[in-house]
Design a protein that fits this description.
The protein is built from eleven helices and ten strands. By secondary structure, it is an alpha/beta fold. The longest helix has 12 residues.
Length: about 250
């Protein structure tokens, strides 16, 4: 699943670049959705790519011509889109999910992530540690989730291995508005888990184990060694960084 939709009310970042959606923003001469689709086409193990957006036909001219690519209309939010698709006949398991603003995503990173996903994982989540990001981008600002074994940021890479993952999607739909506020996400799962997380008594996997136990699913962190996996382009500073990387200047 390649998520290429816009949040309700539109995206000021896209408007600043004179395009209708963030997926259409041109980075180093190529629209972001084009870059990610081409990367996914080059990934062993991905049989089919479904691009989801509110106006999917508007993206068709930007996508590589391939019988492996399909376009579908998205729902109002990310969680609702993923859940509706996961529950449909269009989605054979397992599912790999990423986003169209992942302009620096490489096939090697996708392969490394997928190779680490286990059949016993209902949900696998790609994460990049602060130490990995800082080694290449010491000044890059990200949303950090703080745990006993370090600080981590999301990589917008997810694997859903079967129908049990739908329980996690239902929870995500409830808390999606707080996705950038880690402590609020944890608080939704109970004060005990929140306190242990705030005191850094839990590792990142320990926190996911506790969250999974509350939801009745198995959730596992997949640590990634590629700092580029942490850079999604959703603000101007990220756009400038991604452009510099792709042009060989960073």
């Amino acid at each position: 699943m390649l998520l290429a939709g816009s949040r309700p009310g539109g995206d000021p970042f896209a408007r600043a670049h004179n395009v209708a959606s963030k997926a259409e923003i041109v980075v180093a001469g190529v629209p972001m959705v084009t870059r990610v689709a081409e990367t996914l086409l080059g990934c062993v193990g991905i049989a089919r790519i479904v691009v989801l957006a509110q106006e999917p036909e508007a993206l068709r001219p930007l996508l590589p011509p391939s019988p492996r690519i399909d376009l579908q209309r998205s729902a109002g939010t990310i969680a609702a889109t993923v859940r509706r698709f996961a529950e449909s006949d269009l989605a054979p398991w397992p599912l790999f999910v990423t986003t169209a603003d992942h302009a620096l995503l490489t096939s090697d990173t996708v392969a490394a992530f997928l190779a680490d996903v286990r059949a016993s994982d209902d949900v696998a989540v790609g994460l990049v540690s602060k130490a990995v990001v800082r080694r290449r981008f010491p000044d890059n600002k990200r949303t950090w989730l703080r745990f006993g074994d370090g600080d981590f940021t999301g990589a917008n890479l997810f694997a859903l291995t079967g129908t049990r993952a739908i329980e996690a999607l239902a929870f995500w739909a409830e808390v999606e508005q707080d996705r950038k506020k880690g402590w609020r996400l944890v608080a939704k799962l109970g004060p005990g888990l929140l306190l242990r997380t705030l005191l850094r008594r839990l590792s990142v996997q320990g926190a996911l184990d506790a969250a999974g136990a509350r939801l009745g699913v198995t959730i596992r962190a997949v640590p990634l060694g590629d700092p580029l996996a942490a850079v999604d382009v959703d603000k101007q500073a990220d756009f400038e960084l991604a452009t510099a990387v792709l042009e060989g200047r960073a």
